[in-house]
Amino acid sequence: MNNHTYEAIVIGAGMSGSWVAKELCDHGVKTLLLDRGPNVKHLQDYPTGSTYPWDFPHRGAVDFEDVEANPIVSKCYAYKEGATHFFVKDDVQPYIQEKPFDWIKGYQVGGKSLMWARQTQRWSQYDFNGPDQENFSVSWPISYKDIAPWYSHVEKFVGISGNKDGLDTLPDGEFLPPMELTVVEKYLQQTVRENYDDRHVIYGRCAHITEPQEIHRQQGRAKCQHRTICERGCPFGGYFSANSSTIPWAERSGNLTLRPDSVVQSIIYDEQTNKAKGVRVIDAITKESVDYFADVVFLNAGAINSNAILLNSTSQRFPNGLGNDNGLLGKYFGFHNYRARITATCNQFLDKYIEGKSPTSAYMPRFVNVHEHDQDFKRGYGVAIYTTRYRNTEESGMGQELIDELMKDKNFGPWQVSAMMMGETIPKATNTIQLDSEKVDQYGMPLVKFNVSYDDNDEMMMEHFYSSFEDIYAKAGFENVKRIDTGQAPGLDIHEMGGVRMGKDPETSLLNGNNQMHLCENVYVSDGACMTSTSTQNPSLTYMALAARAANHYVEDRKKEKES
Ligand SMILES: Cc1cc2nc3c(=O)[nH]c(=O)nc-3n(C[C@H](O)[C@H](O)[C@H](O)COP(=O)(O)OP(=O)(O)OC[C@H]3O[C@@H](n4cnc5c(N)ncnc54)[C@H](O)[C@@H]3O)c2cc1C
Ligand code: SF4
Q1: Which residue in 15, 164, 87 sits closest to 542, CA to CA?
Q2: Which of 9, 10, 15, 103 to mutate to test the pocket of ligand 1 (most atoms within 8 A of CB)?
Q3: Which ligand is closest in space to the CA of residue 531?
Q4: Is residue 223 part of a domain?
Q5: How many CB atoms lie within 10 A of CB 393?
Q6: pTM of the model
């Protein structure tokens, strides 16, 4: 038992868990960081990090056999030939879809922080007030003021590029210089400014280092080179991943023990002390069961697995899952609605092209249902705006003749414009994840069962988005406007949230304002599972800030206890 005892255990070495581990280790807490996947070491374990397109057998595309064998994960846009090794294949962890749900997973040290798209926006007070203003879910137990310092703390370390736009709907952060907009995005920015008071086109805020600061140099990270092959792992550390940043930092403290290949099955509850005393792990290689013990447990296995681990943590005191007296565990599960797109062409600026590549896009923060709530639907949406030009490739000729042909500007078509809605969904009691009572996976863990769907609110919001952008495009003089509904299932947004929501009242929520379980305070759930509502912003910056805040809450409590 002595060999297996630490002060803190963190379950999941991904985006949020690595932040908890870093903060705890910085404060001298001996921490065991467990992950179900293998270790991925920065630089050494990016086998395709610098591979040229022509050196891939399929020039970057995934071959048909792979797509056939993996109908779910291959739907993800980042599942490319150079990055498939970071994604969990469909047969590794089967699950039950009572309603369609595309579960995209990254099981390795670093989790999905290796493959993410790095878009990072803060929530505003309008987001935390959402449930109260529009009467859904329950009140958040925290406000923007509580999390703002933690956003700053995380942003400085991670490195976020962006522009200070002074918008109350999207608070400014600690920014490095923004990535450039294209000429069409700048034109759209101007058109929107001239025609609307409530809408703004801004530089997409993203976790890329555009001007390295001392704190980034200390992490061994350098300036982003705009190669846009980030999902393979970046040898420059140009974008934030747990592998390039928080985990090596925590390791350098001497306080971290990292144990990959450790599938956590449950949290062990001590009926005598009424606290958690550790975790039960299945070794992924030997399949042996091993217990680890600690004063405090942080759960950061990604929202779905965190729900599953809690549901599987049954005891005499908690027969329905840890802390689940109110029966709400696994309910009010949330996601983002990414189904709606609207495309167009722009026939101006045909003498201009993009120099280099940009790993981000332009962004329009939420503008509907912010100050007034006069729509037929609740909440609103943010919009990612992409513009580019494609070649009308003329591939006749050989050698220099072909090169000359390809380099001719006349071979570029008009500008293509695409706007993607990122809609807030309303968490509902009927959107659930549960455990199957019979079927288990290769580690003996019950299969996860999804019952998650869109609703009328989502459809009405999509209609609002389409008509708003038809108006915006018309004012900009764009042509060939086309509405698209991808019809994709929930899950493909990869912004899974909720099921273990925060709240003020133990009757209606599972976590308090510090991410501690109301009924088992030495368990913190500090990943997306804690989210009370979903807002429109990409969520990971908020997860990281909440995780850092939760870890520091523990550190402060421990200090007070030692002093008393
Ligand atoms: C292609 C793609 C694009 C994305 N783009 C964005 C974006 O632009 N902006 C944004 O904000 N978010 C984005 N996301 C989502 C983002 O990656 C997640 O929100 C974030 O990684 C969640 O952090 P996490 O710590 O909860 O989970 P993860 O980072 O997934 O980490 C969870 C870890 O827990 C481990 N684990 C799971 N179960 C167990 C268990 N039973 N025992 C032990 N370990 C376990 C996993 O192996 C994993 O390492 C994107 C994701 C993908 C895949
Ligand atoms: S775009 Fe930047 S962060 Fe992404 S792989 Fe290239 S250098 Fe690295």
Answers
A1: 15
A2: 15
A3: 1
A4: yes
A5: 10
A6: 0.97
Query: For 477-517, where are the alpha helices, taking DSSP H only?
Result: none
Q: Is residue 182 one of the residues assigned to a domain?
A: no
Which ligand gives the minimal distance to the CA of 542? 1
| pLDDT at residue number 405 | 76
Q: How many other CB atoms are found less than 10 A from the CB of residue 6?
A: 21
Number of domains, the chain:
1
Instruction: Kindly report the average pLDDT of the chain as a whole number.
Output: 96
Within a domain: 547: yes
**Centroid of ligand 2 to alpha carbon of 489 (angstroms):** 29
Q: Say how far apart CA 78 and CA 84 lie, in whole Å.
A: 8
Amino acid, single-letter form, for residue 146: D
Q: Is residue 125 over pLDDT 70?
A: yes
Residues spanned by the domain of 228? 2-162+204-338+426-453+490-563
pLDDT at residue number 280 = 98
One-letter amino acid at 505 equals D
CA–CA dist 24, 159 (Å, integer): 21
Q: Which residues of 129-162 are buried (b: 16+ CB within 10 A; e: fewer)?
A: ebbeebebbbbbbbebebbbebbebbbebbbbbb
> What is the CA 185 to chain-centroid distance, rounded?
25
Q: Classify residue 477: in a domain, yes or no.
A: no
Q: Say which CATH number the domain at 39 has.
A: 3.50.50.60
Q: Is the pLDDT of residue 122 over 90?
A: yes
Distance of CA 278 from the midpoint of ligand 2 (Å): 39
Cα dihedral 388, 393, 399, 400, rounded to 10, equals -60
Question: Ligand 1 atom closest to Cα of 305?
Answer: 38
